[in-house]
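INTERNAL TRANSFER SHEET
From: sequence group
To: structure group
Subject: Putative transporter ATP-binding component

Please process the attached sequence and return the structure record in the designated field. Keep the field labels unchanged so the import script can parse them.
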Amino acid sequence: MEQQTATLSGGQHTRLLLARALIRQPDLLLLDEPGNHLDLPTLLWLESFLQTWQGSFVLVSHDNTLLDAVTNASWILRDQTLHCFALPCSAARQALQEQDESAALRHKAEQKEIDRVSASARRLATWGRVYDNEDLARKAKQMEKQVARLKDEQTELSVGPPWRLVLQGDALPADRLLEMDTLPVSPAPGQPSLFTTRRGAPAQRRSRGHHGT
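Return from structure group:
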């Protein structure tokens, strides 16, 4: 049966492109959000496909679980700087956070030294004027140059994202597809329970029925 690619769903189109890659066997795959529009079975298939892929791939995704499962290196673009880690996504983000904490400590210590030298320069400059002492004035100028050099070499801190999105209203629970407060659902005979009620609700275990989805 023939079908136009324009009529395929997003998940079908992704599988078609990956199938073409299997046939051509490229050295490198560039994947931009390949998990979009995929149902759970197809997403699990994609994860297995990437885990067994013999070549290299660059994967851009907002799915941390997928990134952790299939990658062994991460690039994080922040503040116009590319941070590279030989780690999966979650471990790389943790490593970047630890770098930020170390940078903050260095920045604080460097600022303390800058403040100390600046205070000494101001004091010497004042004494040079009061006592008309050229040596003190010259030393003050030298220390001011030292302060400028220390500021230029000071550890930079991340400025963070240029904007922050704030959504109004109640949060929508993304892991809850359907909520029924008073409708009991009994497990099918001999079938395991798939989920339980939320915390605070009656502790009745619920399961997929014979014809449930």
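Handover comment: The CA atoms of residues 114 and 147 lie 6 Å apart. The radius of gyration is 30 Å.
Transfer complete.
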